[in-house]
Design a protein that fits this description.
The protein has seven helices and no strands. It has about 200 residues and is mainly alpha-helical.
């Protein structure tokens, strides 16, 4: 009887190890410096790091979001070019349309609005948000599958836009920028949910 129990335990252990090995084999990871989506994220972060801040929340929010939106558009263009999933391609098209329109709006705002406020705390907080966003992106598991990497990285990208927009609502004064911040929060929270649902349906693969 004891020998039978030992045999059963041995079979269970072998089965567990085999299952773990199978799951480990299914997890694919691509180095970040070889990943196209991550390359776009790093280029965007580098541009924001060199942005000359004015200490005016409305101006700095507009300048930051122009760079941030362009990063999303570049990622979406890569998804359309190299992705294969119809849902992700559709979301990419929607992101390009909405964020290009907002780039046009912030560019017009910056041409017509002279920085006049002095709120260094806003600049410090918005740069801190972007630093955290960059670190979070570098912690993501990406695998070289364009559809997967687009979805997983856009979640973090959108989250940082939402956080920056909430800061604009607290510190900004210009109605047009505060309206844009509200629209960004509403639209991108919905898109975050869509990306998350898509990833969960695929088992995050």
């Amino acid at each position: 009887m004891k020998n039978v129990i030992k045999l059963l335990l041995a079979l269970v252990i072998v089965s567990v190890f085999a299952s773990c090995k199978k799951n480990a084999d299914e997890i694919k990871i691509q180095p970040h410096d070889q990943n196209q989506m991550m390359g776009i994220m790093h280029q965007m972060m580098a541009k924001m790091d060199t942005m000359k801040m004015t200490k005016d929340p409305d101006n700095d929010f507009a300048m930051m979001m122009r760079i941030h939106h362009q990063g999303a558009i570049d990622m979406a263009n890569l998804e359309i070019k190299s992705g294969s999933d119809a849902t992700m391609k559709q979301m990419a098209q929607s992101i390009i349309a909405s964020q290009q329109e907002e780039i046009t709006q912030v560019t017009a705002f910056l041409k017509s609005h002279t920085a006049h406020l002095n709120d260094p705390d806003f600049d410090m907080m918005i740069m801190d948000n972007m630093s955290k966003s960059g670190k979070q992106a570098d912690l993501q598991i990406i695998n070289g599958d364009i559809d997967h990497d687009f979805a997983i990285l856009m979640i973090g990208h959108h989250q940082s836009a939402v956080e920056n927009s909430r800061l604009e609502l607290l510190h900004g004064q210009e109605p047009s920028m505060k309206t844009m911040a509200t629209n960004i929060i509403d639209a991108q929270l919905k898109e975050i949910d869509q990306f998350q649902s898509w990833l969960l349906a695929r088992g995050n693969k």
